[in-house]
Design goal:
The structure holds two protein chains of two kinds. Chain A is mainly α. Helices cover 71% and strands 4% of the residues of chain A. A two-stranded antiparallel ribbon of chain A has the order 1-2. A two-stranded antiparallel sheet of chain A has the order 3-4. The mean pLDDT of chain A is 85. By secondary structure, chain B is mainly α. Chain B has a domain of 63 residues. Chain B is 74% helix and 0% strand. In chain B, helix 1 runs antiparallel to helix 2 and helix 2 runs antiparallel to helix 3. The mean pLDDT of chain B is 88. The chains are: A mainly alpha, B mainly alpha. At the A-B interface, helix 25 of A face helix 1 of B.
Chain lengths: 622, 104
């Protein structure tokens, strides 16, 4: 089983190639190619995962090329962490393929969409299987390309085009950091291999300053991909893409690649206390920052996007607080419930043809399947007990507390409260109350769309039981078999933490209920009581505006300076050379006027000058 | 005879040469140009004769050489005039300015 794990990414690649060939096809049954091939990938991934569960690992490598004495290798590796990622990625990819069959119905470039999905799945699975940083980096960029193509799928919409470019550029900033970190590591270790890097980290071959620097550079890459502060602005804009894409790329898989990267390089981070603290602080601040923006967004997908940013912040916080298992656990559960929420949101959008939650309302009765599934997702992400989000969030809080990061702990609790509030604000506004828009043609989505949601709904409920204190810590036992030495096997905080977390989330739900369902509190009491703050939050803390004022304007100013420099200095130099040569040649051509007498005059002058020189120097230049 | 120094002859030759040169380079009429060239040749002849008489070992070489020069100059003048007449027949002008076929 494990020997064939290299086949897993190749099926989506095959799907990509086949669908590109068939891209002109009008038949929507082309979608089945993608569904079938990712289905095979899924089956293989599950097989590999089961084998790994039983304790088999594999690492196969061959030399790709040789630089001096250093061999650059290529290959594949399966360990507990990436086997888990394989399953998550191929499962979500498969479900999204299935869902898109219904969602993209009637689109002109139907096969192209599935081709791009295939390309992305290939890249993501390849990224996960990579045994060295160089290979990871190549797939990392390919994943970015897939994301770019899919965000810009509706390329005729200027917003989608801008969003695609923004996503590409913003993540590229992070990629440069990753690249620098990678090169530094290669310089220090002489290899891109994870194993060799970890070995030399363990032996203390790298100075501690360099360790921190490389870890932080790699973390910059993770910041870019996972939409952490301050490079998060591309992720909400990426919602311009079709909703299944948001579910696959911008909720479950690609944005989790940053978290995966930190987890995969974890021994490096563990060796540097500073790096871990930075990871935790960035994660914690992002969690609350994005959650606060999510409170006031009006676009259903953007609320979910900010929620994704916030949850990714949670994962980073967990990793930074030595909660390796907690981070991976939350990655897993989040992939399921956030993909579910996005697919449900897509189903809503599919039904009402708007993304503005102000124009929805009262959809519970009309969307009999989507509604309850959305509710499950919302309950799971809010951390209501017994659903998956509760367990993973609780573990993150516990490990943060156990690590002694009390400030970040309370930040995370507040973020959990906000999460519950904005999710249920969304739920009550969309599904309850009176319709606030035209809902004449609203009907439930077809079976190909509801089925993936049901699967994800079930997983969103049960995935939490992978790792509980009650039934067994399967996930941490499983991950402990991997190459990463877990920080502390037991890091359960005090028993009051789950109670606090539950209280925070129930309080958030209750507040949302009071405001948006019962109307007991006026909807704008916060806006009225804190006008300044709510303005800032509504405008997303003016981050985009800030970037516009500094980096965009700065770059434009610089380029204007460059234009001026080019126009006056470079072009001026060229013009000076040109006119100099032209002037010289004009003088020269004036000499050649065909008049014997002027030739004679010049000859005489020449002789006079020569004679003068001879006379002055005393002959023969002695 | 010997009261006239060499410098006087040389100065005369120089002045004559310069007048000839000036005429040759500035006059537009081809005939005058030819005459100016003769002036320059004669300046050279004066030089030859003067050096023949006043040099460290005086002799007749310079004077005989100037005779040759006069002969050659006469021949040259004849050829020059012939060319000039041929040119005049062709171009209906003796103006040196208009004789710029080297450029065309």
């Amino acid at each position: 089983m494990l020997q064939s794990s290299w086949l897993i990414p190749l099926f989506p690649l095959l799907s990509f190639i086949l669908l590109l060939i068939l891209r002109k096809s009008k038949s929507e049954s082309t979608a089945w190619i993608g569904v079938l091939l990712t289905g095979i990938s899924l089956v293989l991934s599950v097989g590999v995962w089961l084998a790994v569960w039983q304790g088999d690992f594999i690492k196969v490598e061959g030399t790709w090329f040789q630089i001096g004495e250093r061999a650059i290798t290529m290959g594949y590796e399966v360990n507990p962490l990436n086997a888990l990622m394989l399953v998550i990625v191929s499962l979500v990819s498969f479900l999204v393929h299935l869902y898109s069959k219904g969602y993209m119905h009637g689109d002109e470039r139907f096969p192209v969409f599935f081709a791009y999905l295939g390309l992305f799945s290939f890249a993501m699975l390849g990224l996960v299987l990579s045994p060295n940083l160089l290979q990871l980096y190549m797939f990392w960029e390919l994943v970015g390309l897939g994301s770019f193509l899919l965000i810009g799928f509706y390329y005729f919409k200027p917003e989608a085009k801008a969003a695609a470019k923004k996503a590409f550029v913003m993540t590229r900033i992070g990629d440069v950091g990753l690249f620098i970190g990678m090169v530094l590591l290669f310089w220090q270790v002489g290899s891109f291999e994870y194993d060799e890097i970890f070995a030399s980290v363990k032996n203390g071959d790298i100075s501690s300053g360099m360790l921190t620097l490389t870890a932080l550079c790699i973390f910059v890459g993770a910041i870019g991909k996972s939409g952490q502060l301050p490079l998060h602005t591309w992720l909400p804009d990426a919602m311009e893409g079709p909703t299944p894409v948001s579910a696959l790329i911008h909720a479950a898989t690609m944005v989790a690649a940053g978290v995966y990267l930190v987890a995969a390089m974890y021994p490096l981070f563990q060796a540097s206390e500073t790096a871990l603290t930075v990871v935790a602080v960035v994660g914690g601040v992002t969690a609350i920052f994005a959650a606060s923006i999510g409170l006031m967004q009006k676009d259903i997908k953007r609320v979910l996007a900010y929620s994704t940013v916030s949850q990714l912040g949670y994962m980073m916080l967990a990793l930074g607080a030595s909660g390796y298992v907690a981070g991976i656990f939350h990655l897993t559960t989040h992939a399921f419930f956030k993909a579910l929420l996005f697919l449900a949101a897509g189903s809503v959008i599919h039904a009402v043809h708007t993304q503005n939650i102000e124009e929805m309302g009262g959809l519970w009765k009309k969307l009999r399947v989507t509604g309850p599934l959305f509710l499950i997702g919302a309950l799971a992400i809010s951390g209501v007990p017994l659903l998956s989000g509760f367990f993973s969030k609780d573990e993150i809080l516990a490990s943060t507390y156990a690590d002694g990061k009390y400030g970040l702990f309370w930040l995370a609790v507040v973020a959990a409260f906000m999460t519950a509030f904005y999710m249920f604000r969304l739920f009550f506004l969309v599904f309850t109350g009176k319709p606030r828009g035209d809902q004449s043609g609203v009907h439930e989505s077809p079976g190909v769309m509801t089925l993936p949601m049901i699967v994800l709904g079930v997983l969103a409920v049960v995935a939490g039981y992978l790792n509980t204190t009650w039934f067994g810590t399967f996930l941490s036992d499983y991950l402990a078999r991997g190459p990463v030495e877990l920080p502390h096997a037991e890091h359960h905080g005090p028993g009051w933490i789950p109670i606090v977390a539950t209280a925070a989330s129930l309080l958030g739900i209750a507040l949302a209920y009071l405001i948006y369902r019962r109307g007991a509190l006026s909807r704008d009491w916060m806006t009225r009581s804190l006008p300044g703050l709510s303005d800032v939050i509504y405008n997303k803390w003016y981050v985009d505006e800030g970037y516009d004022a500094t980096f965009v304007k700065g770059t434009k100013g610089l380029s204007k300076l460059g234009i001026l420099f080019d126009k006056y200095v470079v072009d001026g130099l060229v013009a000076a050379v040109v006119s100099g040569v032209q002037g010289l040649s004009k003088i020269g051509s004036r000499l050649q006027n065909g008049q014997v007498q002027s030739y004679g005059t010049f000859a005489i002058f020449g002789i006079v000058i020569l004679l003068l020189i001879v006379a002055l120097t005393g002959g023969y230049f002695s | 005879m010997s009261s006239i120094p060499l410098a006087a002859y040389l100065m005369l030759a120089l002045i004559l040469f310069c007048i000839g040169l000036f005429g040759a380079l500035t006059k537009r009429n081809a005939v005058i140009v030819l005459i100016s060239i003769e002036l320059m040749l004669n300046a050279v002849n004066i030089n030859l004769v003067a050096f023949a008489k006043y040099s460290i070992n005086p002799g007749l070489t310079g004077q005989i050489f100037s005779l040759f020069t006069i002969t050659v100059a006469a021949a040259e003048a004849a050829v020059g005039l012939a060319i000039l007449i041929a040119l005049y027949r062709n171009r209906q002008t003796v103006n040196v300015d208009e004789m710029d076929t080297m450029k065309r």
